[in-house]
Amino acid sequence: MHFKRWITAIVALPLIILLTRKGGTILFAIFICIVCMIALVEYFRIAFNKAQSSKQEAKNLSVFSFQLLAFIISPIIIMAAYINSFNIIFSLIVLNLIFSGLISLRYFKTNTSVVELIARQVLGIIYIPLFLSCIVLIRNDADGTAWIFFLLALVFAGDTGAFYVGRLFGRHKLCPAVSPGKTIEGAIGGLIATFGAGLIFMNYFLKSLPLGPSILFFLLIGVAGQVGDLFESELKRYSGVKDSGSILPGHGGILDRIDALLFAAPVAYFFKEYILL
To answer: Pick from 22, 163, 211, 236: most CB atoms within 10 A?
Structure first.
C-alpha cells in the first residue's frame, strides 16, 4: 500500500507541476474539468449506490436524468471560473436546482424518493465543480501558479503528517463513527505538518504575506482538509462504499485523493482575495 501510494505520487506530481507551470490557465482549467468529471462519476457511484437506493429508483430514468444534468452543468461552472464570471457560476447553481425541480415533477408520481435525489445531486454540484472552481479562480491571478503550489503543499503536508503520525503514535480515536482509523494524534500531526510546510513555502516563495494572518490561514487549511477527508468518509460509510474508485493505485479514486483539497480550496481562495492581500 505504501509503495503504491508513493509510486503514484512520484508519477503524478511532475505532471501536475508541468501542467501548472507551463500549461497556462486554459489547459489548467481543462485539466480541472477532467478531474471534475471523474470525481463526479465517483461521487454518483457513492450517492446513488444501490445499497441505498430502492429498486423502483434504480429502474427508472430519474437517477440518470439528475446525473446527466450534473455532467452538463459542471464543466460550464469550471469554464465560467476560467473567465472569472461569478455571475455565470451563480446562475448555473440556480439553474441546476430549477431544472432538478422540473425533472422531479416528471418522476414524483412513481418515485417519491426523487426529492432525496435532488438533495444528493445538488450536494454533488456544490461539493465538486463549485469547490474545484475556486482552484481555477486562484490559478487565474498573476501569482496563481505560486498559490496553487502553496495550496497543494499545505494539503499534501497535512495529509501525509496526519497519516504517518497517526500510524506511529495514534491512540485516541478522532471520529470513530465516521473513520475508525483516524486519531487525535494524527490530526494534531497533520496540523503541525501543514503549519511547518506553510512557513517554509512562504519564506521562500511568498515572502510578502503577513505572518499573523498566514498562521491563521495555515491552521484553517489544515482543519478544512481534515474535515474534507472525514466528510468523504462519511459519505462512503453511509452508502456502504469502501473507496470512491480505483483509478489511482494505493489511493483509491480521484475523489479519495482530492477530498481534503475540495474543502481547502474555498478557504484558500477567500484568504487570498480578502485577507492575505
So the answer is: 236
Chain CA centroid to CA 132, Å: 7
276 phi, psi to nearest 5 deg: -90, 65
Give residue 239's pLDDT: 85
CA 14, CA 12: separation in Å to the nearest integer?
Answer: 6
Give 32's Cβ-side CA count (13 Å radius).
34
pLDDT tens, residue by residue, 160-216: 999 999 999 999 999 999 999 999 999 999 999 999 999 999 999 999 999 999 999
Give the whole-angstrom CA distance, residue 225 versus residue 206.
Answer: 21
Contacts of 36 (CB under 8 A, 6+ apart): 74, 75, 78, 128, 129, 132
Residue 107 to residues 114, 125, 221, 257, Cα–Cα distance (Å): 7, 21, 41, 35
Separation CA 153–CA 102 (nearest Å): 43
Class of residue 55 by CB neighbours under 10 A (exposed 0-12, middle 13-18, buried 19+): exposed
Question: Is 190 strand, coil or helix?
Answer: helix
62-115 pLDDT, tens digit per residue, is 788 999 999 999 999 999 999 999 999 999 999 999 999 999 998 888 777 888
Q: How confident is the model at residue 145 (pLDDT cuts 50, 70, 90)?
A: very high
- The pTM (predicted TM-score) of the whole model is 0.91
Distance in angstroms (rounded) separating the CA atoms of residues 9 and 71: 28
